[in-house]
């Protein structure tokens, strides 16, 4: 059964009683949202055009009476900072004061709202006997609370904490007075100050803005003393009408916290009208408590519940009578994603934290760009990660996607660690689009520059954004406008006293300001599903109520109120305490569900860092109070770790076609480069380690994504060593190198440095040339280590000389035969041998290894055994020996050598490979038959068999695999 809404009953009552006289009345609500719903109900009652009454919020009424405007929070804290510095005589910065300023402002606001004598509140009571005399206007209970605090404070030993508190405490009243006086001069104030002044003007009978015949107060609950005094004044003038929203269940129970303020309100400001106030115990009410072990699970469940409501009511559903309440505002976006298609119209009435918005992430990326920037002789440079992060931001991508992609490609291809300010605009096309790039890549050093910098960028983006009232593009215009407004305010505040600061300090301050901002989403409030925060539901009633995050610590919030005023003093002077906040939350909760037919309370049962998984105390009350019929459901995730299903890739026709591109059956196919592929020796190691890895890399062609290497890893270090040695020996190619020549090379440090810089330019910076100044940070250490290795290689080569280098890093291409069942196929093989030289009658294959390579191996068979770890370096160099034998067939001796860097400085360094506990292999032909037999078997399996590609069973090989994330 649908219960009549509170506002609908009030509208009926006022319309039937006063009719057309309502145009002379002012209807006052706790919030504007309730006024919109009330207008709807009132409009439905009249069959002819009538003048509507005035609709106001209580705060706007107070502002009108005082003539003061409520200032924004930042301006208030800055004024408070100036008052604090005047009395504290401190050099504390505004940024450091901001947190304390927020606490002080809350305390002053609370004191004013509850008409506390600030001089008495901030008095240092040394003699407890003074309490009865000074605070004679307080009750005995209040005085006892004050006495307990000062008795504890003055007792025991004094310490630094007590001394600091006492010093600040004695200054709070002078700060309070100076602060208020400075605001009065500007006709601005904070909320409590406005309330106090309005209450004073009304009580003294000097308020000049009481124009209306009657003031109708609807749906209030916990009144401040200022509000209560204001109500008293209007009541004495016979200008006040009160409508209270409550249920007899908690009103008549003296111990029930939900009725704590309502009992006092009804007695002090009685209402002439009585509605049905027995709804919580209505037999048709259905309350369901559901626990779900995740936040996302909560939103998904809420979406399913909405689907069920639509399935029950069909197209006749009145979505405006359905509400989803988010006690945790951070669930807004996942909740929007979980809404069913049937809920086409959604009205969002809540604030979303600005820190969760894309605009906040844009600010953070721009701040990081500036903080990590460097100034060089040729101008500003920016760290590559910051540049790429900004260019990948969705706002930038929506404006200049092609330009952003071009810049990122350039940075990666040229391995630009620091990007010059002129680079982004230079590599994109000329035109208006470059304006944004030019403005982004400017260096700032201080707050004023940085603020103007941010505002300029936001202005360009705002020109491209949809209208603020539009929800297109994820509300980008609204997000940017919020950031723009905050920046303009902080700029104006700092400009007042000509304050400037470094960017790091300014960013900390701005983050504190942005952390308190909420994005005010707007929509059509009188149409569609209602998505609200708990405060926005005041005075509103719904048939279907779904409340998420009904967890202790979230609703009600568990964090203590931050305050300079200790608890006992707050209690003694009647200020806001945790008990008051709990009572307010209890009222909001019970009032929301009292007229609902279906109530679904969802809580997160999973314990996290911020949530203990404990259901809200309000749920516990419903469960244990016998009058409520509560159903409980508990959702869990059934996670079964079953047996792993291996990934198997069969050799389909398409796979066989790709594999066939590696095979060259005749010379004609080699002339069609697009139809042929070549295999490197490293691919053989890849297949032995894991056939599935080989499939991903060489059949599917899945490669590792290119990225900027800002620190030199093993791979880059190896490239630097290879390139430097190539440049060192290039002038001596195909000439006999003697010990004397190598000795001169060792001594020529200038030549070595030049070759190393060239190697850095090509392999690391991807540039034509660099200077020594470009090698900075840890790379300087890398350069010195590299120099040490080069000198040692030259020394070792000196002991081997004379020799002749035949080739350096030259490609080696062969057609390797694969024999199977009397048939021969040919595999296109290629590779780059680091160094091919000739020592007397022996052809040497030299491979430089900077990683964890070893010259020793157990056996030829072990190299091909997929169940074992294997030796990649030996396998690779023996394969090169096999390939070299086919090209240089005149040599009867081929020797493989590994220059393993970690072994270079051993006294008896020997680069030759060898089987464990056996002499070094001086000639490849000694092991050629065995090796090539195993190699033929491997290649037959790889290219000529029908065996599928399967995963390795040796998990150690998966540790550094590129494909492990989706292969598992």
Describe the structure.
- This protein is an alpha/beta fold and 968 residues long.
- The chain has 5 domains: 6-68 and 196-268, P-loop containing nucleotide triphosphate hydrolases (Rossmann fold); 75-185, no CATH class; 286-350 and 523-634, P-loop containing nucleotide triphosphate hydrolases (Rossmann fold, 3-Layer(aba) Sandwich); 355-520; 799-958, no CATH class.
- The protein is 47% helix and 14% strand.
- The protein has a 7-stranded parallel β-sheet, sandwiched between helices.
- The two termini are 54 Å apart.
- The model is unreliable at 666-673 (pLDDT under 50).
CATH architectural label of the largest domain: 3-Layer(aba) Sandwich
Q: How many extended strands?
A: 27
How widely separated are the two ends? 54 Å
Give the full name of the CATH homologous superfamily of the largest domain.
P-loop containing nucleotide triphosphate hydrolases
Count structural domains.
Answer: 5
How much is the radius of gyration in Å? 40 Å
Q: What is the CATH fold-level name of the largest domain?
A: Rossmann fold
Main structural class: alpha/beta
Mean pLDDT: 89
Portion in beta strands: 5-15%
Strand order within the widest beta sheet: 9-15-8-16-17-7-18
Relative helix content: 40-55%
Assign the CATH class of the largest domain. Alpha Beta
* Low-confidence runs of at least 5 consecutive residues: 666-673
């Amino acid at each position: 059964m649908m219960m009549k809404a509170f506002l609908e009953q009030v509208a009926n009552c006022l319309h039937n009683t006063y009719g057309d006289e309502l145009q002379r009345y002012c209807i006052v609500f706790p919030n504007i949202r309730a006024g919109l719903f009330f207008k709807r109900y009132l409009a439905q009652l009249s069959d002819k055009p009538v003048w509507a009454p005035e609709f106001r919020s209580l705060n706007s009424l107070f502002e009108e009476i005082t003539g003061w405007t409520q200032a924004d929070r930042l301006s208030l804290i800055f004024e408070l900072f100036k008052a604090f510095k005047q009395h504290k005589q401190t050099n504390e910065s505004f940024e450091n004061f901001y947190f304390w300023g927020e606490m002080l402002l809350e305390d002053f606001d609370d004191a004013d709202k509850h008409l506390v004598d600030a001089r008495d509140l901030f008095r240092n009571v040394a003699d407890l006997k003074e309490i009865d005399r000074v605070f004679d206007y307080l009750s005995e209970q209040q005085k006892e609370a004050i006495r307990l605090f000062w008795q504890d404070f003055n007792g025991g030993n004094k310490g630094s904490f007590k001394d600091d508190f006492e010093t600040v405490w004695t200054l709070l009243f002078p700060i309070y007075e100076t602060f208020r006086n400075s605001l009065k001069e500007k006709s601005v104030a904070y909320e409590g100050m406005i309330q106090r002044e309005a209450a004073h003007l009304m009580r003294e009978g000097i308020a000049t803005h009481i124009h209306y015949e009657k003031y109708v107060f609807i749906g209030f609950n916990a009144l401040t003393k200022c509000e209560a005094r204001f109500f008293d004044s209007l009541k004495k003038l016979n200008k006040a009408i009160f409508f209270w929203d409550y249920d007899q269940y908690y009103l008549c129970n003296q111990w029930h916290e939900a009725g704590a303020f309502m009992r006092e309100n009804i007695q002090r400001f009685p209402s002439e009208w009585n509605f049905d106030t027995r709804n919580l115990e209505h037999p048709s009410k259905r309350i369901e408590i559901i626990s779900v072990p995740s936040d996302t699970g909560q939103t998904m469940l809420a979406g399913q519940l909405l689907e069920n409501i639509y399935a029950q009511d069909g197209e006749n559903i009145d979505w405006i009578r359905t509400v989803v309440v988010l006690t945790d505002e951070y669930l807004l976006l996942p909740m929007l994603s979980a809404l069913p298609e049937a809920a086409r119209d959604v009205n969002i009435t809540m604030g979303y934290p600005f820190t969760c918005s894309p605009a906040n992430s844009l600010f953070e990326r721009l701040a990081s760009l500036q903080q990590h920037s460097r100034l060089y002789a040729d101008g500003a440079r920016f760290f590559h990660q910051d540049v790429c992060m900004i260019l990948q931001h969705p706002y930038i991508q929506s404006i200049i996607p092609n330009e952003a992609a071009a810049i990122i490609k350039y940075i990666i291809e040229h391995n630009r660690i620091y990007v010059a300010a002129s680079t982004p605009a230079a590599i994109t096309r000329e035109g208006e689009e470059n304006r944004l790039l030019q403005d982004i890549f400017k260096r700032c050093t201080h707050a004023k520059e940085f603020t103007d910098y941010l505002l300029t960028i936001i202005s360009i983006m705002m020109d491209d954004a949809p209208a603020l009232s539009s929800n297109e593009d994820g509300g980008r215009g609204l997000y940017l406008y919020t950031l723009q407004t905050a920046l303009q305010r902080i700029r104006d505040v700092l400009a007042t006293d000509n304050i400037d600061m470094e960017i790091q300090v300014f960013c900390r301050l701005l983050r504190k300001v942005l952390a308190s901002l909420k994005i005010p989403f707007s929509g059509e409030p009188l149409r569609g599903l209602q998505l609200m925060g708990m405060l926005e539901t005041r005075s509103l009633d719904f048939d279907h109520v779904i409340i998420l995050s009904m967890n202790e610590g979230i609703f009600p919030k568990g964090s203590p109120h931050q305050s300079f005023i200790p608890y006992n003093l707050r209690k003694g002077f009647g200020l806001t305490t945790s008990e008051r906040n709990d009572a307010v939350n209890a009222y909001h909760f019970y009032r929301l569900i009292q007229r609902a037919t279906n109530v679904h309370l969802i809580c997160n049962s999973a314990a996290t860092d911020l949530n203990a998984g404990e259901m809200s105390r309000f749920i516990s009350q419903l469960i244990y109070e016998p009058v409520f019929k509560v159903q409980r459901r508990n959702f869990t995730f059934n996670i079964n770790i079953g047996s792993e299903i291996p990934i198997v890739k069969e050799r389909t026709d398409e796979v066989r076609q790709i594999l066939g591109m590696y095979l060259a059956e005749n010379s004609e196919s080699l002339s069609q480069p697009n139809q042929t592929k070549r295999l490197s020796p490293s691919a053989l190691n890849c297949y032995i380690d894991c056939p599935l890895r080989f499939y991903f890399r060489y059949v599917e062609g899945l490669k590792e994504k290119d990225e900027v290497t800002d620190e030199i890893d093993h791979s880059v270090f190896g490239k630097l060593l290879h390139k430097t040695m190539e440049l060192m020996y290039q002038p001596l190619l195909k000439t006999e190198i003697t010990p004397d020549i190598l000795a001169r090379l060792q001594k020529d440090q200038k030549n070595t440095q030049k070759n190393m810089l060239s190697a850095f330019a090509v392999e690391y910076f991807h540039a034509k040339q660099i200077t020594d100044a470009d090698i900075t940070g840890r790379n300087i250490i890398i350069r010195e280590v590299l120099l040490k290795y080069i000198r040692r290689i030259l020394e070792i080569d000196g002991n081997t000389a004379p020799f002749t280098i035949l080739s350096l890093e030259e490609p080696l291409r062969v057609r390797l035969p694969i024999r199977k069942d009397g048939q021969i196929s040919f595999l296109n093989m290629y590779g780059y041998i680091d160094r091919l030289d000739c020592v007397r009658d022996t052809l040497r294959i030299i491979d430089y290894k900077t990683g964890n390579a070893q010259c020793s191996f157990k056996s030829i068979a072990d190299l091909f055994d997929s169940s074992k770890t294997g030796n990649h370096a030996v396998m690779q160099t023996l394969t090169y020996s096999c390939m070299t034998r086919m090209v240089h067939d005149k040599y009867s001796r081929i020797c493989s050598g590994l220059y393993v860097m970690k072994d270079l400085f051993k006294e008896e360094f020997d680069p030759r490979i060898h089987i464990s506990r056996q002499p070094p292999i001086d000639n490849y032909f000694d092991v050629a038959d065995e090796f090539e037999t195993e190699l033929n078997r491997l290649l037959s399996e790889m290219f000529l068999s029908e065996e599928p590609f399967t995963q390795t069973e040796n998990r150690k090989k998966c540790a550094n695999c590129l494909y492990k994330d989706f292969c598992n």
